[in-house]
Amino acid sequence: MTTLSLLILLSAGFATGVTAVAAAFVRTRPQLADIVGDSTPARGPARFAFLTAPLADLEVVQRAPESFMLQRIVFAAIGALWVPLLAIVLAFGEVAPPVALTGVLSLATAVIGWMLPAVNLKSKVARARTELRGALACYCRLVALGRAGDRGPVEALRYPASLGDGWTFRRIRDAMDEAALLGDMPWDGLQRLGAATGVRELGDLTHVVASAGHDGASIVTSLRAKADSIEQQLSAERKTGAAVRSDRMDLPLALLGLAFVVFLAFPGVATMLTT
């Protein structure tokens, strides 16, 4: 078997294997019987946990797990195929790399391709959660104003959500609308939204509002304190992020300085080694 044929079989077999294994463990849509019976969909084996999609993160950006897994499969397949294809091109010039080296590099680039969507998703989710928490601070102040104006707990929650046009207020509004369709209170919908998106401040808000709805307690001060707490935490995170970005700027300068030193020292070192 020629090197060219071996490289083609290697790339095709690896891409097919990655696609088949990942597709076998993609989270599928639940069946109607499972929903009616309130059963939990079966999960894949624990040894394949790395193939599961981060559901809370996907819920924040409103992306389907199937779409995310498909993107990972495509990126992994591209990573696995481009090295063998490059080796095939080099083979026509009679400079093909060893098959073992091609296989190792193909595996490495496939792993990198598999991880890239997860890294990109993590960045998007961090920004989305920050935006949601910032909007929640504003929402808390609006609810506090409603309660101070003698609005009931339900009306104080629902009316401010109708004022915003951004995706954050739309998610809050949709969560309460879904709760209304299920016959639940609005704060139950916010509780579910906080659990689904991993934004714990939503759960804290629901506890405050629910206590007012059941016990008649005044929550204006508590809501304003919660808004202040969220804003202070976001401010601290922004300062920390700015400090980290400032530290990262030192690395390119250090590398540039090192390259300049190597550039100056290379002629002398080369002369010493050749004499």
From TrEMBL:
It is a multi-pass membrane protein. Keywords: Cell membrane, Membrane, Signal, Transmembrane, Transmembrane helix. Its main location: membrane. The keyword Transmembrane helix applies. The chain crosses the membrane at residues 73-93, 99-119, 253-273. Residues 140-265 form the Type II secretion system protein GspF domain. Residues 1-20 form the signal peptide. It is found in: Cell membrane. It comes from the Bacteria. This is Type II secretion system F family protein. It comes from Amycolatopsis halotolerans.
